[in-house]
Write a structure and sequence with these properties.
Strand 1, helix 1 and strand 2 form a beta-alpha-beta unit. The chain has one domain. By secondary structure, the protein is α/β, with parallel strands linked by helices. Belongs to the universal ribosomal protein uL15 family. One of its GO terms (biological process) is translation. It comes from Aegilops tauschii subsp. strangulata (Goatgrass).
Length: about 110
């Protein structure tokens, strides 16, 4: 992106995990912003595939803080998606959810 600096003509706002100084300067010269965000491996999974957690019956994890060596290289901690529906906790709620899902399949 730094090599194609002259190609950036409109302001764009990016949220990335890593960027070179040249690329960041090119985007900011066009009036845009580059925000360096930290995600760990589990955070990336929650960001890209939140359905994986629902399928496994797990809650989406909280965003992790960067390790001490990387704290000066990032602007903020990544935001993770909120769960789309609450997870059932009691056996009664599990049974109710299973019956409701079965009714949806039969109706379809």
């Amino acid at each position: 992106m730094g090599r194609g600096a002259e190609e950036i003509k409109w302001p764009i706002h990016l949220e990335v995990s890593r960027a070179t100084a040249r690329a960041k300067a090119a985007v900011e010269a066009a009036g845009g912003t580059v925000r360096l965000v930290y995600y760990n491996k589990l955070g990336f999974r929650a960001l890209l595939k939140p359905e994986w957690f629902a399928k496994k019956g797990r809650l989406i994890p909280k965003a992790a803080r960067p390790p001490p060596k990387q704290r000066d290289k990032v602007d903020s901690i990544g935001r993770l998606p909120a769960p789309t529906k609450p997870l059932p906790f009691t056996s009664e709620e599990l049974e109710f959810t299973a019956k409701r899902e079965a009714a949806k399949v039969i109706a379809a």
